[in-house]
Every structure is written in C-alpha cells, then in structure tokens.
Design brief:
The chain is an alpha+beta fold. The protein contains two helices and four strands; from the N terminus they run H-H-E-E-E-E. It is about 20% helix and about 30% strand. Strands 1-2-3-4 form a four-stranded antiparallel beta sheet, with no helix packed on it.
C-alpha cells in the first residue's frame, strides 16, 4: 500500500478497532473503499440515481472527481458506472 494511503488513513480518526484495521487494509479484514478519478468531470442527473426516491438535489450540477469503483466488504459493488451483483447492504441503525 502506498505511503500516501497509510498517511491519510492515520489522519482519519477511526471509530473502532475494526474500522482502523479496514482503513489500513490489514490481512483478514474486509475492505470498504471507493476508487475516485480526481480529474474526471461529470454532470449529476436524476436519470441514473439508483435510490428508492429516484432523484437528487444535485440534479444538473457539474462536478470534478468521479467514483470509478466501489468495494464493499471485499466485493466489487460498482465499477465504471455499472452496479455489480446483488445488493448486499444492511440498514443503518440509529
């Protein structure tokens, strides 16, 4: 793992030991992270929103920096704009 990633992970305050292990990519810990192309520019539009409501307050906004892939619990959930596999999320408890 690159020095920058370890340095950045050390700057973020983990909420638990499990979260700290995941941030540093230790062996036998699952991985949750998103790969971002910091130079990619896109317009956010409602037509690709995959939530239950189907819209976003950011519709029409031009942004720089775009997620290219998301890994959840060590499995690819999204890559290059395409959802992969079955949904595997769990509800957030408040």
């Amino acid at each position: 793992m690159g020095c920058f990633v370890k340095q950045r992970a050390a700057e973020i305050q983990p909420q638990s030991r499990t979260e700290a292990r995941k941030m540093l990519g230790e062996k036998r810990s699952d991985a949750d992270f998103t790969l971002v192309d910091l130079k990619a520019g896109r317009a956010i539009t409602n037509d690709w929103i995959a939530s239950k409501v189907g819209w976003t307050a950011y519709d029409g906004r031009e942004v720089t920096g775009w997620p290219m892939g998301t890994i959840i619990r060590g499995r690819t959930a999204m890559f290059e704009g395409e959802l992969r596999g079955e949904a595997s999320g769990r509800p957030v408890l408040f």
